[in-house]
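Here comes just one.
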Amino acid sequence: MENLLSKPEVAVISKNQLWELAFSTIKELEFEEGIRASGEEDRFGCVFGRDSLITSLKLLNAYRKNRDPYLLFLVKKILSKLSLLQGREENIESGEEAGKCIHECRAGKYNMDNFGWYVYPDGILRNYDSVDSTPLFLIAAYRYWQVSNDSVFLLTHLPNILAGLDWILKRGDSNQDGFIDYKIQTRLSGGLTVQSWMDSTESLFDESGEAPCFPIATIEVQAYSYLALKLWGKYLSDEKLISRAENLKNLFNKKFVIESSGKLIFPYAIDGNGKPLLSLRSSIGHCLWASLNPELDQEEDSILEKEYAPEIARQLFLPELFVEAAGIRTLSSGSSRFEVDSYHNGSIWPHDNSMIAEGLEIFGYKNEAIKIKDAIFNSIHHFGSAIELYTYDGEFGEYSGGASRRQAWCAASLLSDLASCGNF
C-alpha cells in the first residue's frame, strides 16, 4: 500500500484525520459505566477491565502532550467505575477474589447468560478471569494520580489500591514459584481458560505439541506486576512490596532469559512444571513498555535487566515478526502454530504495537518506535477505523472471525502515538 503518511504534503492532513477518527471513537464508546471495549452492538460492547486500563494509560499519555481535560476526566471515570467492580469475596464460578480487578461485566441483553457464564443474583454477568487486570489497575491508578495530582482520588481509592496489592502478594502466585500466574478452576459455569491478554485457547501452546501444564505465568504479566509493585512500594515506603518486586525481577531474569547456543531466548510463558514456552511473540515487547519512565519517575527501570533490551528490540524487528507495511505480528511466522488469519497466532493488533513502540521509546529506540507507529498509521488509514485487529499476507485482510471496527484501546493508542508526534 502506498504510504500516504510519508508524503510531506499530506502527512499533517492525514494525521489530523486519524486524530479526529480516534477521538470520535473514544467519545462514542464512553458511557455511564466508563468505556465499552467496542461498539454497543458488537460482541465486546461492554466493560472489560484489561481494555479499559490500557485505554486509560494511553489516554494519559495523550493528555500529557495535549492537555485536553476530557481525556483526564474520562480516565478518572473509568478508574472510579472499575473500583466499584473490584472483587470483594471468593466466587469460584466467576473467578472473583478479594482485590482482583474485573475482566468483563455485562448487563441486560449483553449479559451472555445463554453462553453459560456465571450471572450474579442481580442479573449482571461479572467475570474475573484476567490475570493482568489487577497490576494494570495499579499502574493506571498511580499514573493518573501522578499526572493529575488528584489527591482526593488517591485517598478515595487507596483501599482499592491496597486490596489490589494484597491480591498480588497473596493470591497472584497460585503455585508459589515466584511468578504471577493463572490457573483453571473446576466450575459448573463457563469462563476463560487462557487469562492473559492473548486470551484465546489457540494462543497457549508448546511447540513440541505437548499440552502446557497449568498454572501459566506469561512474560508480560510479570513485567506489569513488577512495575505495579515498584511504583506503589516506593510511594508507600513499603519494604514488603519493594522486596517482592526485587525478588520477582531476579527470578525473571533467571527463568525468562534463556541462553542457548550463544543466543538469547525469551519464552512467552512458563508453565506449571517450570517448562518455558519458547515461541517468539510480540508480548516480549511489553517488558520494555512496563517500565519506570525517566520523564515521570526520574529513573529508568523495568523487570528486564537493561543489558537484554537490545536483544528484545532486535527480535521484535525480525522479518518473521515485523511487517514494515502493517506492524508486529502476535506470533512469529516461524512458529508451527502460525496462521495469518488467526486471533492471536499471527494477526496484528494496533494497541499491542503501540505498547511496544512506547516501550522502545523509553529505552531510547526512537527510530524503531517510529517504524511501528508509521506501520499502524498506514494500517488504520487503510481500514478507515480504529479496528481491533487485522491480518497481513502481502496485503491487508479482515480477520475472518470478525473484528470490531471501533475498539477503545486502538483508538486510545492512536491518540497517544499521534500526540507523541506533536501538534495535537
User: Anything to note?
Assistant: The first strand starts at residue 30 and ends at 31.
